[in-house]
Design goal:
Largest interface: A-B, 27 and 28 residues
Oligomer: homodimer
Shape of chain A: globular
CATH class of chain A: Alpha Beta
CATH topology of chain A: Ribosomal Protein S5, domain 2
Strand content of chain A: 25-35%
Number of helices of chain A: 9
Order of helices and strands of chain A: EEEEHEHHHEEEHHHHEEHEE
């Protein structure tokens, strides 16, 4: 059996981490955007071998347990102990790992949904396990619940699925510009001194957004957060200023990656494309993914 | 400005009411299915008059406050006090009112989303208001959160949006048969002696479903609930037995309407159609609505 799941990429605009010993109570407050591109997970399940085997691959390359702790944690929990067969988890990422697109959560949630679909379970049980894996292995705190919410989401109560509460903003048909320039390691930032500033600036941004809950306001607050925490500086800040010259709403920094994002109106797409081509930086322009993650049986060679 | 919202019809398979003085803590446990047909709400908002006017119409017929308490409650809360203009709420229902399709919740949620989209607010604030209106005016307890969840939903923690927790079952491509034969008044059933039986049978069904969370199991449990509570009897029971003869999974009763529903596999559609045509009963066959409710600006004469 082959099962496919698609999980949107999720970029965070601003956030407040909420740590807790119980992984389901750990999470984050904040706001973010789900994209039409993201993570595709294909789970291939074939019985009939003498042992229970679980394998994972990222973008076609096999990965061992040490390099895919989150995926193996999820799979080990969902493949029954007495299953004799081969389970292969193929994860394909539209954006680079470590750049702040929620790839690890996408892999965790996609794996959890695909294996729950095959072996039994519900959306909530799958989502809880993916969140737990993310928190325990420090992949992220708010991506799983953000991806489940879709669209432009606002985490108003921290926690995992069934505990956290996620709101959504209304939005018109914006496109999203993303400029991924390099990785930032979530666990290093969250272990450092900047956490205090993130808590102060993130809470301020969330309060202000809830008073005026519009995507345009979110971008202004995201930018204040990025600058106020000291995370957006140097070359990245200069690039943000260049981009701002051709857009109505401010660009901001992808949390947490060395990269930028912005909301584009239709008539701004061409200008920003030629600017970024001139500057020679990599970029992508995608839609906002408003629907849920997808999961279902996959028939090779097309739909049945 | 014209804003359109679509809210799926929501039929309940089994339930346990949970009453509470705080409307947001009132709700229900249980399971249900969202359909591809449902309620379309068009909110027309035009400023520039000397007074603030709110009007509503059901299926094209104007309705006064006494006959549309829920809609007016929602609209009065969302149209600003100082707005000078005409607000018209046009609600169109694909299924008849009072037959257990969640029309009142569809109207409440559609109105809340459309007016929040126009005047400001978020998905969560709109959803809370719609649930509150439903509970206060006894439209229903679980339809709003069920409609927000989409698909085949299981209410595992009772309460309104942000408090209740709703799970989803995985399902393959079933069609849904609905046979609406007449109205049942929610408030009369919930005020009667049957509530005790509903609580006992509903809790039993929920526990059993969570141990084996599959749509096929839900139908078996729904049928036990319908019979165990004494709600499914007489002619309706006989019709259910006729339908069962041509289906793999049992049919059950729409809670709360005088009607039946069933999950259809592709190869069962023709048989059930000819059976129901022979019997001369009204029916409809629709898909399961897995996506979210929709809301957005509406451009007359087609999409822009």
């Amino acid at each position: 059996m082959l099962v496919r799941a698609f999980i949107p990429a999720h970029i965070t605009a601003f956030f407040v981490p909420r740590f807790h010993d119980d992984p389901l109570k750990a999470g984050s407050l904040g706001a973010g955007i789900n994209l039409d591109k993201g993570t595709n997970v294909f789970a291939s399940i074939e019985g009939g071998t003498l042992e229970r085997h679980i394998h994972a691959a990222f973008n076609g390359e096999p990965v061992g347990k040490r390099d895919a702790e989150i995926t193996y944690y999820v799979a080990e929990n969902l493949v029954p102990e007495d299953f004799l067969g081969e389970v292969e988890i193929w994860q394909y990422f539209d954006f680079p790992n470590g750049h702040g697109f929620g790839n690890s959560a996408g892999g965790a949630l996609g794996t959890a949904l695909a294996l729950s679909y095959a072996f039994g379970g519900t959306w909530l049980s799958a989502a809880k396990l993916a969140h737990e894996a993310e928190v325990i292995h420090k992949g992220g705190l708010g991506d799983v619940v953000g991806q489940l919410a879709g669209g432009i989401e606002v985490r108003v109560k921290a926690g995992g699925p069934g505990i956290g509460v996620v709101d959504n903003l209304f939005f018109e048909d914006y496109r999203v510009l993303v400029v991924p320039l390099g990785p930032l390691h979530t666990r290093e930032v969250l272990d450092g001194d900047v956490v205090k500033a993130i808590e102060v600036e993130g809470s301020k941004a969330l309060d202000a957004l809830l008073k005026d809950p519009r995507p345009e306001r979110m971008m202004v607050l995201a930018r204040s957060f990025a600058e106020g925490t000291g995370l957006l500086t140097g070359d990245l800040m200069e690039l943000a200023r260049e981009i701002d010259k051709v857009l109505k709403n401010p660009s901001s920094m992808i949390m947490l990656g060395k990269g930028l994002f912005a909301l584009l109106r239709k008539n701004e797409v061409d200008d920003v494309k030629s600017l970024l081509a001139d500057l020679g930086v990599p970029y992508d322009i995608t839609g906002i993914h408003w629907e849920r993650p997808k999961v279902g049986r996959w028939f090779e060679g097309g739909s049945e």
